[in-house]
Give the backbone structure.
Amino acid sequence: MKKNDKNFYLTKTEIQKIKKSKTFYELVIIGRGILYRMSDPISQVCGPISTGGNGSVEENLGTLAKAIKFLTEKEISVFNQLPFEKTFDKIMRNYKTSSYDTPILEEFYGPVFESGKIKNVYFLPGWRKSVGARWEYNYAKKLGIKTIFLPKNWIKNYKK
Protein backbone atom coordinates (compact mmCIF):
# COMPACT_ATOMS: atom_id res chain seq x y z
CA MET A 1 0.00 0.00 0.00
CA LYS A 2 1.38 3.41 -0.97
CA LYS A 3 1.84 6.05 1.72
CA ASN A 4 -0.58 8.40 -0.03
CA ASP A 5 -3.30 5.74 -0.01
CA LYS A 6 -6.23 7.06 2.04
CA ASN A 7 -6.18 3.94 4.25
CA PHE A 8 -2.40 3.73 4.65
CA TYR A 9 -2.61 3.63 8.44
CA LEU A 10 -5.53 1.21 8.61
CA THR A 11 -4.81 -2.51 8.92
CA LYS A 12 -7.03 -5.35 7.69
CA THR A 13 -7.53 -6.38 11.32
CA GLU A 14 -8.72 -2.87 12.19
CA ILE A 15 -11.13 -2.88 9.25
CA GLN A 16 -12.65 -6.10 10.58
CA LYS A 17 -12.81 -4.72 14.14
CA ILE A 18 -14.53 -1.56 12.90
CA LYS A 19 -17.16 -3.64 11.10
CA LYS A 20 -17.78 -5.77 14.22
CA SER A 21 -17.85 -2.89 16.73
CA LYS A 22 -21.06 -2.38 18.65
CA THR A 23 -20.19 0.80 20.57
CA PHE A 24 -18.55 4.14 19.93
CA TYR A 25 -16.10 3.30 22.73
CA GLU A 26 -14.82 0.32 20.72
CA LEU A 27 -14.40 2.59 17.68
CA VAL A 28 -12.52 5.19 19.75
CA ILE A 29 -10.03 2.52 20.85
CA ILE A 30 -9.44 1.56 17.20
CA GLY A 31 -9.27 5.20 16.10
CA ARG A 32 -6.76 6.11 18.79
CA GLY A 33 -4.63 3.10 17.85
CA ILE A 34 -4.50 4.41 14.30
CA LEU A 35 -3.70 7.94 15.49
CA TYR A 36 -0.76 6.75 17.59
CA ARG A 37 0.85 5.12 14.52
CA MET A 38 0.41 8.13 12.27
CA SER A 39 3.03 10.74 11.47
CA ASP A 40 2.69 14.04 13.32
CA PRO A 41 1.15 16.50 12.85
CA ILE A 42 -2.15 14.76 12.18
CA SER A 43 -5.07 16.52 10.51
CA GLN A 44 -8.72 15.66 10.03
CA VAL A 45 -11.20 16.88 7.43
CA CYS A 46 -14.51 18.21 8.70
CA GLY A 47 -17.55 19.05 6.65
CA PRO A 48 -21.14 18.22 5.90
CA ILE A 49 -22.19 14.58 5.91
CA SER A 50 -25.82 14.24 6.97
CA THR A 51 -26.79 17.93 7.04
CA GLY A 52 -25.84 20.62 4.53
CA GLY A 53 -23.29 20.24 1.78
CA ASN A 54 -24.19 18.66 -1.53
CA GLY A 55 -27.67 17.55 -0.51
CA SER A 56 -27.02 13.85 0.01
CA VAL A 57 -24.94 11.77 2.39
CA GLU A 58 -23.34 9.89 -0.54
CA GLU A 59 -22.25 13.09 -2.31
CA ASN A 60 -21.00 14.61 0.95
CA LEU A 61 -18.96 11.49 1.73
CA GLY A 62 -17.54 11.65 -1.80
CA THR A 63 -16.43 15.24 -1.27
CA LEU A 64 -14.92 14.34 2.10
CA ALA A 65 -13.04 11.44 0.46
CA LYS A 66 -11.70 13.77 -2.25
CA ALA A 67 -10.53 16.26 0.37
CA ILE A 68 -8.75 13.51 2.32
CA LYS A 69 -7.04 12.34 -0.86
CA PHE A 70 -6.20 15.92 -1.88
CA LEU A 71 -4.50 16.65 1.46
CA THR A 72 -2.80 13.25 1.65
CA GLU A 73 -1.29 13.83 -1.79
CA LYS A 74 0.16 17.06 -0.39
CA GLU A 75 1.89 14.80 2.20
CA ILE A 76 -0.38 15.94 5.02
CA SER A 77 -1.03 13.17 7.54
CA VAL A 78 -4.84 12.86 7.57
CA PHE A 79 -6.93 10.72 9.91
CA ASN A 80 -9.50 9.11 7.61
CA GLN A 81 -12.79 8.70 9.45
CA LEU A 82 -14.63 7.31 6.41
CA PRO A 83 -14.06 3.61 7.25
CA PHE A 84 -16.03 4.22 10.47
CA GLU A 85 -19.12 5.68 8.77
CA LYS A 86 -21.14 2.49 8.15
CA THR A 87 -20.54 1.35 11.70
CA PHE A 88 -21.65 4.77 13.02
CA ASP A 89 -24.97 4.21 11.27
CA LYS A 90 -25.28 0.69 12.68
CA ILE A 91 -24.54 1.84 16.24
CA MET A 92 -26.92 4.82 15.96
CA ARG A 93 -29.83 2.42 15.39
CA ASN A 94 -29.48 1.48 19.09
CA TYR A 95 -30.00 5.07 20.23
CA LYS A 96 -33.49 6.28 21.01
CA THR A 97 -33.12 9.78 19.66
CA SER A 98 -35.13 11.70 17.13
CA SER A 99 -32.65 14.56 17.04
CA TYR A 100 -29.31 14.91 15.30
CA ASP A 101 -26.73 12.11 15.70
CA THR A 102 -24.95 13.83 18.61
CA PRO A 103 -23.68 10.53 20.09
CA ILE A 104 -21.32 10.22 17.09
CA LEU A 105 -19.89 13.63 17.93
CA GLU A 106 -19.78 13.31 21.69
CA GLU A 107 -18.78 9.66 21.96
CA PHE A 108 -16.44 9.30 18.96
CA TYR A 109 -15.16 12.62 17.64
CA GLY A 110 -14.87 14.20 21.10
CA PRO A 111 -12.52 11.48 22.41
CA VAL A 112 -10.60 11.43 19.12
CA PHE A 113 -10.01 15.18 19.38
CA GLU A 114 -9.21 14.84 23.10
CA SER A 115 -6.45 12.32 22.29
CA GLY A 116 -4.22 15.30 21.59
CA LYS A 117 -3.08 13.74 18.32
CA ILE A 118 -5.25 15.83 15.96
CA LYS A 119 -3.39 19.13 15.52
CA ASN A 120 -5.28 20.58 12.53
CA VAL A 121 -8.82 20.35 11.25
CA TYR A 122 -9.57 21.28 7.65
CA PHE A 123 -13.07 22.52 7.00
CA LEU A 124 -14.79 22.04 3.66
CA PRO A 125 -16.64 24.96 2.09
CA GLY A 126 -20.20 25.07 3.37
CA TRP A 127 -19.26 23.60 6.75
CA ARG A 128 -21.33 26.22 8.60
CA LYS A 129 -24.54 24.63 7.25
CA SER A 130 -23.60 21.32 8.89
CA VAL A 131 -24.65 20.64 12.49
CA GLY A 132 -21.77 18.20 12.97
CA ALA A 133 -19.10 20.40 11.39
CA ARG A 134 -20.17 23.34 13.56
CA TRP A 135 -19.87 21.07 16.61
CA GLU A 136 -16.38 19.97 15.44
CA TYR A 137 -15.36 23.61 14.90
CA ASN A 138 -16.44 24.62 18.40
CA TYR A 139 -14.84 21.57 20.00
CA ALA A 140 -11.58 22.06 18.08
CA LYS A 141 -11.48 25.71 19.20
CA LYS A 142 -12.14 24.66 22.81
CA LEU A 143 -9.21 22.22 22.67
CA GLY A 144 -6.87 24.61 20.85
CA ILE A 145 -6.79 22.57 17.63
CA LYS A 146 -5.86 24.72 14.62
CA THR A 147 -8.71 25.30 12.17
CA ILE A 148 -7.97 25.65 8.46
CA PHE A 149 -10.58 26.45 5.82
CA LEU A 150 -10.31 24.97 2.35
CA PRO A 151 -11.10 27.63 -0.27
CA LYS A 152 -14.37 27.38 -2.21
CA ASN A 153 -12.54 26.51 -5.42
CA TRP A 154 -10.29 23.76 -3.99
CA ILE A 155 -12.27 20.96 -5.64
CA LYS A 156 -12.37 22.68 -9.05
CA ASN A 157 -8.59 22.90 -8.95
CA TYR A 158 -8.33 19.23 -7.96
CA LYS A 159 -8.73 17.01 -11.03
CA LYS A 160 -8.36 13.54 -9.50
